[in-house]
């Protein structure tokens, strides 16, 4: 089936990006993408189930991990099925309304995830620097309020993005740079003054992701300062090792985010393949890595997974 071009696309729709010259290989290229999506679904659902059923994990750090897992499930599910539909069934068009909705979910969920990562950093700071007050400061009720505040913050900051694009006229060329909709990508196709959208988008990113990243760095500087006061290197390593999983998750979120931003800002002359790969990494890599990171670093999660595998093997043997 031939791919449509921009001249025969409905004016109320956009064209998702394909890789020039590799259209015939889309079916096979979607298989690793689908595999990563299944891994993300299975891993994050496992985290939610294990934390729910393991009483020893009913503490703020793992409640925040559950929030992170739920966000990753929502973020990957709001994008990957549509990408797979494009690769497997050649449904390359996406309506303007569906594009704006997808854009809202991607940016809002990313903002919520950034806030939760900041809350997890604060949890590590309180646990290490003020251990006797940790239980009193971060109660279950406080944890739930932080999760609600993260959701409200994400919606309030990023709801205006699609609303600012809604009245804009768009050019005849409506080919996106990715297989899903991002604010800057859609905005670049507008045939009107986009200064308000540019300014607000940059402001929202700086006030949410930028501020969160700064506060996470400050939290770890304070943690490092407290750790270095300990008497022995053995104690220092033992205390700081409780932060390793969170640091890895922060890097898994912010490195693809920064990479995608750099590609958008400075990579207009790069091959379309680079844009598509960076977009897929941004959506899927954190969702795949987060359960693995905490699974490796958390003994209770390891025990439950090994127990499940053992039971499954016994049933298979019978």
From TrEMBL:
Q: How does it sit in the membrane?
A: Multi-pass membrane protein
Q: Which Pfam families match?
A: 7tm_4
* Gene Ontology cellular component list: plasma membrane
Tell me the domain of life.
Eukaryota
What GO molecular functions are on record for this protein?
G protein-coupled receptor activity; olfactory receptor activity
Presence of the UniProt keyword Membrane in the record = yes
Membrane spanning residue stretches: 27-50, 62-84, 104-126, 146-170, 198-223, 244-267, 273-296
Question: G-protein coupled receptors family 1 profile domain location, by residue?
Answer: 43-294
GO biological process assignments:
cellular response to lipid
| Classification via SUPFAM superfamilies | Family A G protein-coupled receptor-like
Give the keywords, sorted.
Answer: Cell membrane, G-protein coupled receptor, Membrane, Olfaction, Receptor, Sensory transduction, Transducer, Transmembrane, Transmembrane helix
Subcellular location(s) per record = Cell membrane; Membrane
InterPro entries referenced in this protein's UniProt entry, alphabetically = GPCR_Rhodpsn, GPCR_Rhodpsn_7TM, Olfact_rcpt, OR51/52/56-like
| Family named by the database record | Belongs to the G-protein coupled receptor 1 family.
**Name the UniProt record assigns to this protein:** Olfactory receptor
Species of origin reads Bambusicola thoracicus
